[in-house]
UniProtKB/TrEMBL annotation, chain A:
<feature type="transmembrane region" description="Helical">
    <location>
        <begin position="34"/>
        <end position="53"/>
    </location>
</feature>
<keyword id="KW-1133">Transmembrane helix</keyword>
<keyword id="KW-0472">Membrane</keyword>
<protein>
    <submittedName>
        <fullName>APA family basic amino acid/polyamine antiporter</fullName>
    </submittedName>
</protein>
<dbReference type="Pfam" id="PF13520">
    <property type="entry name" value="AA_permease_2"/>
</dbReference>
<dbReference type="InterPro" id="IPR002293">
    <property type="entry name" value="AA/rel_permease1"/>
</dbReference>
<feature type="transmembrane region" description="Helical">
    <location>
        <begin position="65"/>
        <end position="85"/>
    </location>
</feature>
<feature type="transmembrane region" description="Helical">
    <location>
        <begin position="317"/>
        <end position="342"/>
    </location>
</feature>
<feature type="transmembrane region" description="Helical">
    <location>
        <begin position="422"/>
        <end position="440"/>
    </location>
</feature>
Automatic annotation (TrEMBL), chain B:
<comment type="similarity">
    <text>Belongs to the universal stress protein A family.</text>
</comment>
<dbReference type="InterPro" id="IPR006015">
    <property type="entry name" value="Universal_stress_UspA"/>
</dbReference>
<feature type="domain" description="UspA">
    <location>
        <begin position="159"/>
        <end position="298"/>
    </location>
</feature>
<feature type="domain" description="UspA">
    <location>
        <begin position="2"/>
        <end position="144"/>
    </location>
</feature>
<dbReference type="Pfam" id="PF00582">
    <property type="entry name" value="Usp"/>
</dbReference>
<dbReference type="InterPro" id="IPR006016">
    <property type="entry name" value="UspA"/>
</dbReference>
<protein>
    <submittedName>
        <fullName>Nucleotide-binding universal stress UspA family protein</fullName>
    </submittedName>
</protein>
């Protein structure tokens, strides 16, 4: 086999015929605008709303409502850019696959680093948040709380408490792993039920929250200034990762040119409405300063309800709903993570064991177990404060690369058929980059350091291992003669 | 080699009997049709009523055996000329599957045949209560006919299709299927079925189709490997390898072409109790959607 020059390898793109080389049926265009929109709502709402207020309100104060709008605007712009790539490149899969087909191997690896961080760390972050609600629930119902040693990570964050391990978070991740190993259908059924519960308990929070609404609590609306708004928006941003999945359905949507933007915009409108309502209800129900209290850091919305009603019942109901529904978020993010690693394993960017499917359950078992163990370790030993920001930087990085991808592809492949085109080109993708960069500017230096280190690790792995084992090194695969 | 076919009390099972005759004819082996009849209560001092009941059951058994013998002669008049030694015998027992297991042991049988259950679609395998129990406890392969199965005299099994998913249990099932092919003089078809179930994201969005494709590729490679591992002299001359995918099991099974001379072999679960037949979830789903009779091998 003739060795490929280094530069050529970094820039080479995966031919579309490799993906279409199977003799299986093509995906049918069966998803309509409304169902796609509802899917986006289900995949996004609740990703962080149960505990993000406690992270974001201390940064932005009552202006957290604006932070939600800024984060939503960036997510919406990015989702539109996703939609163009999704419709132009008729493959299923994640951002990593789009990048590999459109922008080359090196960019694909950069995006892989971003989305792995996004999905992997968000699974851990949500599991840590779940742990607080779980403790709140057992405390309210059984009068038993796990000791601090077993419910808080050992890594210190500012003046926060430390323990030995966040055991509930580890158990949650391992439970999700068992479900995912059992099968995709079983996981999907459980997930659907949990999403419905999630929407119901958020509705409960909004209704009860508005009953204690006091407009005075919005007095010092801009007290934290633009920096506070951008810092909170950066923290919140990970809540919107569900929207990228809407755009990746391009291959199966009826009339994608109309349906994709409408579904994205519709889902975004619904999601932002829900988020803003929850934020207004929360901020209107108690002073912004109280969001920093240690008990709210553990199970924020639930504690707010208890403070409002003076009864533990609504808070317990919300905590129970949150315990069930946040489970689904960990499940879905872990699932997304395993499928990205699966795609990388198939491309030879990771050992082929990551793309091996268990014949009994039809799931990538090895891949799922490895992901779950790593995520469980992160969830068990790292405080959530570090995790939220790291998720956001991964998401923002991926969104920026996608927006740049739209610009690059328009220039390098102007003749490519694009059933959906970004409206307002080139303003929209440029604006996406600008808004995402603005939000990124709000992230602390330690997050940048973590991100930089992670990117370096992924690229080092690629240079030392991945580029030698890439399937495109096989001349037949490089010509697109099927897999 | 002996085939045991089970007939439940008062239910002349035409499907099972017809299929047992076809298998015996194809395998040129002994057929023992067992009519399970209830026995009297084992009272130490039987009174008049008990003796009357015992006599009634004995008469009923004789009538049942005669009826089944006549039915078998009607369904497969050519068994004698095909060199098949067929017998219809009564066996006393309160549990049909339990009694059949005793008969399998007593006759040193290598296969037990049952008809389809009464509640299910015509032309498909319907697992009744007796078959269900046998599928969980039989030490020998269990054949289940499709509902309404009939075979014209002289019909033989022409092709054996074995369900293969690429794990050690499948390899074992393949070996049993190959042995069956040799005994039957039939061709072999190795089939892998892939089903794309529901996912958390809309279908295929997050690469579930990729997972399925990878599995089918993997299983195809495993088919080649498993066939290559078999001794050359036992592999049938005609071997076909196929893959079928669908959004559910009905679509995947129905995607394969089937003929009336087909027989489907599925392996039991690798999690089964020792080597006994214990159906895995995939095997159970394939079995329920099969349009041809199925043999489940332990």
């Amino acid at each position: 086999m003739t060795p490929v020059p280094f530069r050529t390898q970094l820039l080479r793109r995966k031919p579309l015929a490799v993906r279409g080389g199977h003799d299986g049926p093509e995906l049918g265009r069966s998803i309509g605008t409304f169902s796609l929109m509802m899917f986006g709502v289900g995949a996004t709402v609740g990703t962080g709303i149960f505990f993000v207020l406690q992270e974001a309100v201390p940064d932005a104060g009552p202006a957290v409502v604006v932070s939600f709008l800024v984060a939503g605007l960036a997510a919406g712009l990015s989702a539109i850019c996703y939609a163009e790539l999704a419709s132009a490149i008729p493959v299923s899969g994640s951002t990593y696959s789009y990048a590999y087909h459109a922008l080359g191997e090196l960019v694909a690896m950069v995006i892989a680093a971003c989305v792995l961080l996004e999905y992997g760390v968000s699974s851990a972050a949500v599991a840590v948040g779940w742990s607080g609600y779980f403790n709140e629930l057992t405390g309210s119902v059984l009068g038993v709380r796990l000791p601090q040693e077993l419910s808080v990570s050992p890594v210190p964050y500012e003046d926060g408490p430390t323990g030995w391990i966040n055991l509930p978070a580890v158990v949650l991740v391992l439970l999700c792993m068992l479900l995912l190993v059992r099968g995709a259908s079983e996981s999907a059924r459980v997930n659907t039920i949990m999403v419905l519960i999630k929407l119901a308990v958020l509705g409960l929070f909004v209704v009860v929250g508005f009953s204690a609404f006091e407009v005075d609590r919005f007095d010092a609306f801009w007290a934290a200034g633009a920096a506070g708004v951008s810092a909170a928006a950066a923290t919140i941003f990970f809540s919107f990762i569900g929207l990228d999945a809407v755009s990746t359905a391009g291959e199966e949507v009826r009339d994608p040119q109309r349906a994709l933007p409408r579904a994205i915009m519709g889902a975004l409108a619904v999601v932002i409405t829900v988020y803003v309502l929850v934020a207004i209800a929360g901020v209107g129900a108690q002073p912004a300063s109280e969001f920093e209290s240690p008990e709210q850091q553990e199970a924020g919305l639930s504690v707010i309800l208890q403070n409002i009603t003076g009864s533990s019942i609504p808070g317990t109901v919300l905590a129970a709903g949150a315990v069930i529904s946040i489970f689904s978020v960990t499940l879905v993010t872990l699932y997304g993570q395993t499928r990205i690693l699966f795609a990388m394993g198939r491309d030879g960017m990771l050992p082929s064991r990551f793309a091996r499917v268990n014949p009994r359950t039809l799931t990538p078992t090895y891949n799922t177990v490895v992901v779950a163990v790593v995520v469980a370790l992160v969830a068990g030993f790292v405080p959530s404060d570090y995790l939220w920001d790291t998720v956001s930087i991964g998401t923002l990085g991926a969104f920026i690369v996608v927006a740049l991808g739209v610009l690059v592809l328009r220039r390098t492949q102007p003749g490519l058929e694009r059933p959906f085109r970004v409206p307002g080109y080139p303003v929209t993708p440029v604006l996406t980059v600008v808004v995402c960069a603005y939000i990124l500017s709000g992230l602390p230096a330690v997050t940048w350091a973590i991100f930089g280190t992670w990117l370096a690790v992924v690229l080092a792995f690629y240079l030392l291992w991945g580029r030698r084992h890439a399937r495109l090194n096989d001349p037949a695969a490089a010509r697109g003669e099927g897999v | 080699m002996t085939i045991v076919a089970g007939i439940a009390p008062g239910k002349p099972d035409v499907d099972g009997l017809s299929y047992a005759a076809l298998l015996a004819r194809s395998l040129r082996t002994r057929l023992r049709v067992v009519c399970v009849v209830p026995g009297p209560w084992p009272t130490p001092l039987s009174g008049g009523v008990d003796r009357e009941y015992a006599a009634y059951l004995a008469d009923a058994a004789t009538e049942e055996v005669a009826a089944v013998r006549s039915l078998l002669a009607e369904l497969a008049p050519d068994l004698g000329s095909a060199g098949v030694e067929a017998e219809v015998v009564p066996a006393v027992g309160r549990s049909v599957p339990g009694t059949l297991l005793e008969q399998v042991a007593a006759a040193d049988a290598s296969l037990v045949v049952l008809g389809a259950g009464a509640n299910g679609a015509w032309g498909h395998v319907v697992v009744g209560s007796a078959a269900d129990r046998l599928l969980h406890s039989s030490p020998v392969p269990v054949a289940v006919a499709t509902r309404g199965f009939r075979a014209a005299p002289g019909t033989q099994v022409g092709r054996v299709t074995v369900g293969f998913r690429g794990d050690p249990a499948s390899a074992a099932a393949l070996e049993r299927a190959v042995a069956l092919c040799v005994d039957l003089g039939a061709t072999l078809r190795v089939a892998t079925l892939g089903v794309l179930g529901r996912t958390m994201y809309p279908p295929e969005v997050r690469g579930e189709d990729d997972v399925l494709e990878a599995y089918l590729e993997q299983a195809t490679a495993a088919q080649v490997e498993a066939l290559a591992a078999l001794p050359v002299d036992v592999v049938p001359a005609e071997v076909e390898r196929v893959v079928s995918r669908g959004r559910d099991w009905a679509e995947a099974v129905g995607g394969l072409p089937w003929t009336p001379e087909d027989l489907l072999v599925v392996g039991s679960s690798s999690a089964g109790l020792l080597s006994r037949v214990f159906l895995g979830s995939s095997a159970a789903k394939i079995l329920r959607h099969s349009p041809v009779p199925v043999v489940v091998v332990p």
